[in-house]
Every structure is written in C-alpha cells, then in structure tokens.
Fold this protein.
Amino acid sequence: MDNWKRKFVVIWSGQAVSVFSSTVLQMALIWHLAIATNSAFVLSLASIAAFLPVAVLGSFAGALVDRWNRKLTMIGADLFIAVVSLGLVVFTFFAEPPLWFILMVLFLRSVGTAFHTPAIGAVTPLIVPESHLTKCAGYTQSLQTIGFIAGTSVAAVLYPLWGIRGMVALDVAGAVLASVAVALVSIPPLPQAEKEKRQNLVAEIKDAFNVMRKHKGVFALLWIGAVFMFFYSPINALFPLMSMGYFGGTTTHASIAEIAFAVGMMAGGIVLGLWGGFKNRGAMMSAAIALMGISIAISGLLPPGGFVVFAGLSLFMGLSVPFYSGPYMALMQEKIAPEYLGRIFGFYGSLMSVAMLLGLVATGLSADAVGVNIWFFICGAVIFVLSLIAILMPSVRHIEKH
C-alpha cells in the first residue's frame, strides 16, 4: 500500500470510531429530549446549541488552524470533547441531567468541533494526491457513515439499558482512539514562508475569502449550499418526531429511519469512492440536491401509516448526500492552496451553521403549528427548486472548465 494510503486509512479509521462513539451519545441525548418533551421546539433548541459555536467561531477557528500545528489541533479538539462528555458523567452521579445542562454539553462539544472540522479538512490534501481527492471524499463519507450506522444501532439497544452514562463512556473511548490514530501519522507542515505572512485574524480571513471568490463555481456552490442547509436542517432535526410522532412509532422506528438514511449514505460513498462520479461535478451535485428534495417532499405527503415508504425514501435521501458533499469538499481542496484551507473550511462551517440555525429557528417557531409532515413537504419542494437553479447557473454547469 502506498504511504499516503496508509496515512489516510489510519486517520479516517480513527475518525470512524470517533463518529461511532459520538453518534451513540448524540442519539441518546436526542431520544432523551424527544421522549421527555415530545416537542419540535426543544429538539430545534438542542440543534441550535450544537451548531451555534461553529457558526460564531468557525471562521476564527479556521484562521487559527492555519496558524497552528494541524495535527495537534485535531488531537486537542478530540480530547476537549471527551473532557466535556466526562463532565456529563460526573453530573449524572448526583442528579438526572436537566435540559439546560444537556444544552450546555451540546454547546461545548460544538466548540471542539469548530476547531476539529477545519483542521481535518485542511489536513487531507496534505496527505492525499489531488487526483484522488474526490474518490477519497467518497471513502471518507462511507467510513463516517459506517460509524454512524453502528452508533445508531448500538444507541437503540443500549440507551434503555445503560442510560446516558454508558453512552458517555463510549464517547470518551472513541475520542481517545481517534487521537491516537492521528498521533501515529506524520503530517507535512506548511512552508515556513507561509507562517511569515501572518497578519491579524480578520485580515487573514478576508484574504481567504477573496481567494475563494476567484473560483466562481466553487463560490456559487457555497451560497447554494447555505440555502440548502437552511431548508435541510429542519428535516434533520425533525426526523425523530416524524418517526415517533407523525407515524406513531417508537425509538426502534426512529432507529430504522436513521439507519436507512445512513445505509444510503454509505452506499453512495462507496459508489463515489470506486467510480469517482460524473466528470461534470456541478451537474452531479445538482442531481444529488434534486434527489434529496424529491425524497423529502414525497415523505411529507405520506399518510400516518406510511412509515415503511418513509424508511425507503430515507435511503434515497442518504444516497444523495455523498454525491453533493464529497465533490464539493474535493473541489475546495483541489482549487484552493493548502495554506488557506483552514480558513476556507472554517468559513464554510460557519456559514453552513448560520444557515442551519436560521432554519432551526424557523422550524421551532412553525413546525408544531404547521405539522411535521407539512414542514417536510415544504422544505423538500424548495430544495428541488434549488437544484434547478444550481444547474442553470453557468459557473456551476461548467465548473470543470474554469
């Protein structure tokens, strides 16, 4: 096996374990809130707590990632998240964690994510050759999804038996293993000349933004992605209520829908990794958005007894994700110099999180009154229209030529 392949496998195997353990805890917290409150507002509030730090800190965290040792940043962020989770364990020895404490835990874990995500996005092109970035993005999606599927399955079985405390123990172990995997891999540092160009954080963020603007197709897809996230984030947050509320299911039904989504993501990631996708990645991403929109809209039209069809549509929703997210990550990593990628991924994460937060606010204010299923139909229809807008934009349609 080539040296870069070994590094990629080691790092992302550790990340898959971390995703597994984080999913176990995340699903436990979501189900705890869903069972305790049965409220779309509370679930939206939890999602806001989980995304707000990334929205606020993302760009500045990305700028710091470009200054700091990216390897140590990834390890530090993982261990910080583990310490926060341990705090939750300590609290459960004294009392049942209230809503405010769970929200604080989600908030602090997101602070670690704000640094970890741009760091690993910026590290990948330092290891993987440019010609393999799209395929590796597919494999990355599959590894993460395998961790998500296993985590969701384990959470469904162990949450009723172990409670939140047992879920936290798995999360801490996963974070430690992911940190060890990163520590075992040598990551090339940025050239010393780049470090000598440092200004102030705001100027550095502005420089990276201007670099991204020069790539018109990538820049257009950035804003299309923000609009997409505004309408997709409510769907992600309301999945448990759709399964357990509208369709009248249990946590097992919620797990089935989540796993179906994840299986679709895994299958899409494997196909993208083996095939590489269409040569025109702009067209491929537009088609993926269309598939997502159609699947969500049809889900909103199903009768209360249509859970089996909903689970099937969840599979197609998941299938579409790698064909949108994978090519876009690869495009940014190919077209933008490595020394800017921490800031670029930080800004990207910040913008997507702001869009998610606004979408979740709209959901919290409206979903309980309108109905979860109607909200699914509205968001799906808008996402489908967005796919048409994307493919009609010349900079997206001809993105490979620019």
Observations:
- The chain has a mean pLDDT of 81.
- The chain is about 85% helix and 0% strand.
